[in-house]
Write a structure and sequence with these properties.
The structure holds 2 protein chains of 2 kinds. Among the domains of chain A are: 118 residues, Sandwich (Immunoglobulin-like); 141 residues, no CATH class. Chain A has 19 helices and 10 strands. In chain A, helix 5 crosses helix 19 and helix 11 packs antiparallel against helix 12. By secondary structure, chain B is α/β, with parallel strands linked by helices. Chain B has a domain of 75 residues. In chain B, the strands form 2 sheets. Chain B has a 6-stranded mixed beta sheet with strand order 6-7-8-3-9-10, with helices on both faces. In chain B, strands 2-1-4-5 form a 4-stranded antiparallel beta sheet, with helices on one face. The two termini of chain B are 32 Å apart. The chains are: A alpha+beta, B alpha/beta. At the A-B interface, helix 10, helix 16 and helix 17 of A face helix 2, strand 6 and helix 4 of B.
Chain lengths: 615, 250
């Protein structure tokens, strides 16, 4: 208690002055804010604004979803504005078996009131009562905004103020009474909205699925606690750096070669089918033999080489299988679309999936061989570091770190050349190569030959920087770029939202990885598990609940984002919404806003139920 | 034979956790490591399987220097050293069976781990180990559904899956009540006596040391202050180990 008393700040003139200054500063900040954001209620009070505001709000309150077929009864009744000098000419008595209108008196000055009485109309109808200028009863120009309703006997009375349209000739007052017939039906707006909201939901679904799928591996290399222990000696780093480009190049060539082998059989469905059945079996057997599940003693060199060979052939067979799968899927899709038109979307799905597999397989091959070669060379680098003496290792390090530095910077230079089209080899080739050489040399000279360098943290920072950079670009801006790349439509939206999902989820996920408890990690490492195994058995089980919950959250965000991504041509309901707002068609816009609200609210409900169930 | 020679560990902040520690552990011994909290017991145990990188010194195991081992050799060495932890360090959301099978990861090809597959023999072996420590009926429960004593038995079964030649136990009973403590220590004793596994076990209570240990080393502020038989710890030695103000309890 006594401590508390001592800590209590005493009132002093200085503290009061501080408080006063703080309030003053706040006042200034908000005053400036008012000026910058142009806070002004003057406009709001003007009648013109209020009138249009209430019109828009009323339109928004009536989303254009349902409509009735309407029956109209139109009666034109003659009237004179300013009584003619020779008195009102007599008219033929109108037909009194149907609906008719009686105006008393038949003439009056502009601005004066006449009584308009209607008889024999259908009961309980409503509609405008308007003045038709000129002497033609079929004139479409109408003046006035009065509305009349008939009672249950089809009768109405209205005091009509004549407009300032004096004329010698006869003019008319038109009663247009409308009646709803039949039951209400959905409007075209409703159908369009339905179609687009479905598109929107699936846009969000695809973006979330692909984004999550790619964000998971990224989140592991963006997690500090997993990357910090990753250290390797310089020789190993230099070798793995050299391994990547060589491997990607070789892998791409090899996979293209396999594609060439596969292409003669591309169109034959039986061969496709046999291939995609046989290949998995062969691959399974190959992997089974080349990668024994458990090995107590180290295998001899001959066996190791044989295994590597079998593994390589198995991977080639696997890629052949992927190409055959792609062809099969495309062929199946085409046949399907031709023969079952009503379920054509499934055929299209097969065709597009086949196309995607066909396109990404060479890239996948490049990456796989690149990764494998890099890891293999890294291991060789590790061995060399262990075997060589410190002085000869130093020479070795200098040579290979120069080579690696020159390669990396040379490639970056080429990328810059492609992006900015400098076309000056001094800046895009020799300059970077020289820089890389010098940096590699410096690194090799200033590090101890056998010391390990924090590779993991370098990868961590590079990944983080890229993630943060991409994350700061709004999905809406990305959509503009993708609209240019793949054309206006929902696919551009999927790409933009998907990319944004990858980078933001990778960050959120990696923070979850960083906050897992370290105990199980330590225990699994102690059993001799390598890094991959540690991630699978100690990290993954711990991060499943937060991953599910973040994915749900992202799904929510994507649904909301996909409703406006159409503003820039990214597909979905945003396109309709923007169009209707620009056309001042607020009732239609209201229907779309309602649809968005319903979808977002139900997504929210569903995701909260799922979260409760699984997390 | 495990030989610790001049082992020193200085943490990044400059804290000297181990200061020139040397001692030998013959195969099949049950060695207790005692000392105050923060005296370096955990650091010592973790240096032996290199969960913590020693700053200086050597750890020779059957003639091989663990401190110089490459990552691949380290995997081979670690899979022969089981480890048991004070806080059990189980993966809470995984099944007990999965936690026990994790002890085999040092033997299993990582490619198969991607598919979450264990050989049939290993699953049978896991069932046997769970029977041995009396938790076979809990195999399909989630690890966090078990009580403390049961969780530590899962930890022991996990270590046994490694076919260990040595077990490092880092205060295995500090989170348990005295009855459970004895049952866990009896399992370790059983593994030590029947299977001939060397056990290095850090302990807080001297009665447990007297009851179970063949030999004792004591650390104080990172320095080795005692090495000998449990019965040799008299009142004077006790004050050396635990400080002048300490009093014997239990």
């Amino acid at each position: 208690m006594s401590d508390n008393k001592d800590n209590k700040k005493k009132a002093s003139p200085w503290r009061s002055a501080q408080l006063g200054l703080a309030i003053l500063a706040g006042l200034v900040i908000y005053a400036y804010g008012f000026q910058v954001t142009k806070v002004d209620l003057e406009d709001l009070r003007s009648e013109r604004r209020q009138e249009s505001l209430s019109r828009v709000l009323r339109a928004l309150a009536k989303p254009e979803l349902f409509a009735y077929e309407q029956q109209e009864e139109i009666i034109n009744s003659p009237v004179f504005v300013t009584c003619p000098a020779g008195g009102v000419p007599s008219f033929e008595e109108s037909d009194r078996t149907g609906p008719y209108v009686v105006i008393t008196p038949l003439c009056a000055n502009a601005g004066e009131t006449v009584q308009v009485e209607g008889f024999n109309f259908a009961p309980n109808t409503t509609g405008p009562l308007r003045f038709i200028p000129g002497s033609d009863p079929t004139n479409t120009v109408e003046i006035g905004r009065d509305t009349v309703d008939t009672d249950s006997s089809g009768h109405f009375v209205f005091d009509f103020v004549l407009p300032k349209r004096p004329s010698e000739d006869v003019q008319y007052i038109r009663a247009t009474l409308r009646q709803n017939v039949g039951s209400p039906h959905l409007t075209k707006t409703a159908y369009d909205t339905w179609e687009k909201i479905i598109e929107t939901v699936f846009l969000a679904l695809l973006a979330t699925t692909f984004g999550t799928f790619l964000a998971i591996p990224l989140s592991f290399i963006a997690a500090r606690n997993l990357m910090k222990p990753v250290r390797s000696p310089l020789a190993s780093i230099a070798f793995s750096v050299l391994g990547w480009p060589i491997g990607i190049f070789l892998g791409y060539l090899i996979v293209r070669w396999v594609e060439g082998l596969s292409s003669p059989f591309a169109q034959s469905i039986p061969i496709n089918l046999v291939s995609i059945i046989l290949v998995p079996i062969l691959a399974w057997l190959g992997f089974r033999w080349a990668l024994p599940q458990e090995e107590i003693s180290k295998p001899g060199p001959v066996l190791q080489v044989a295994r590597t060979g079998v593994l390589f052939v198995t991977v080639l067979v696997g890629f052949y299988g992927l190409f055959q799968l792609a062809n099969f899927s495309k062929n199946l899709g085409s046949i399907w679309v031709e023969n079952w038109a009503s379920l054509g979307f499934l055929g299209n799905f097969f065709f597009q999936m086949g196309d995607i597999v066909g396109i990404i397989t060479p890239a996948l091959g490049g990456l796989a061989v690149g990764g494998a070669l890099s890891s293999f060379m890294g291991r060789i680098g590790q061995r060399i570091t262990e075997r060589l003496s410190a002085s000869s290792l130093k020479v070795f390090n200098i040579v290979f770190s120069i080579l690696a530095g020159a390669t990396i910077f040379g490639l970056i230079g080429q990328l810059v050349d492609w992006l900015y089209q400098v076309s000056n080899p001094f800046y895009t080739l020799w300059g970077p190569v020289l820089t890389g050489t010098l940096l590699g040399l410096a690194l090799a000279i200033f590090t101890k030959a056998k010391a390990t360098l924090p590779t993991g943290m370098v990868i961590y920072y590079v990944t983080r920087t890229i993630l943060n950079g991409l994350r700061s670009i709004e999905a809406l801006v990305m959509a503009i770029v993708f609209v240019i790349a793949v054309g206006i439509g929902p696919f551009a939206g999927v790409m933009a939202l998907g990319l944004h999902t990858i980078v933001s989820l990778a960050k959120l996920y990696s923070e979850q990885v960083e906050s897992i408890s370290a105990g199980p990690l330590e225990a699994v490492t102690a059993t001799g598990a390598n890094r991959l195994q540690t991630i699978i058995y100690a990290v993954v089980p711990q991060i499943i609940p937060p991953y599910i919950s973040y994915t749900m959250y992202r799904w929510d965000i994507n649904v909301r984002m996909s409703t406006i991504i159409g503003f820039v041509g990214g597909g979905g309901i945003g396109f309709l919404l923007q169009q209707n707002i620009n056309l001042l068609n607020y009732r239609a816009a209201s229907a779309q806003m309602l649809a968005i609200a319903v979808v977002v609210a139900s997504m929210d409900y569903v995701s909260s139920v799922l979260r409760e169930k699984y997390v | 034979m495990l030989q610790i020679k001049n082992l020193t560990k200085i943490y990044d902040g400059g804290v000297k956790a181990l200061d020139n520690v040397s001692f030998d552990v013959p195969d099949g011994q049950f060695l207790a490591i005692i000392g105050l909290s923060g005296s370096g017991k955990s650091t010592l145990l973790r240096c032996i399987n290199r969960l913590i990188e020693p700053t200086d010194g050597q750890i020779l195991w059957n003639g091989e220097d663990i401190t110089k081992a490459s990552p691949e050799e380290m995997r081979r060495i670690r899979r022969k050293i089981g480890m048991v932890f004070q806080h059990f360090n189980l993966v809470h959301r995984s099944k007990v069976l999965t936690n026990v099978l994790a002890g085999r990861l040092g033997y299993i090809n990582p490619a198969w781990s991607l598919l979450n597959r264990f050989p049939k023999d290993d699953i049978e072996k896991a069932v046997r180990q769970m029977e041995r420590v009396g938790i076979a009926d809990k195999a399909n429960h989630r690890a966090d559904e078990l009580s403390g004593g049961q969780q530590q038995r899962v930890g022991i079964a996990r270590a046994l899956m490694q076919d260990p030649e040595m077990i490092l136990a880092d205060e295995p009973v500090a989170s348990l009540d005295p009855v459970l403590a004895h049952s866990i220590m009896k399992h370790l004793e059983d593994i030590n006596k029947k299977d001939g596994v060397t056990v290095l076990c850090s302990l807080h209570f001297l009665d447990l040391v007297h009851r179970y240990a063949d030999c004792v080393v004591a650390l104080n502020a990172g320095e080795l202050v005692f090495e000998g038989l449990p019965k040799e710890i008299d009142d004077k030695k006790f004050k050396d180990i635990y400080g002048r103000d300490a009093e014997r309890v239990g």
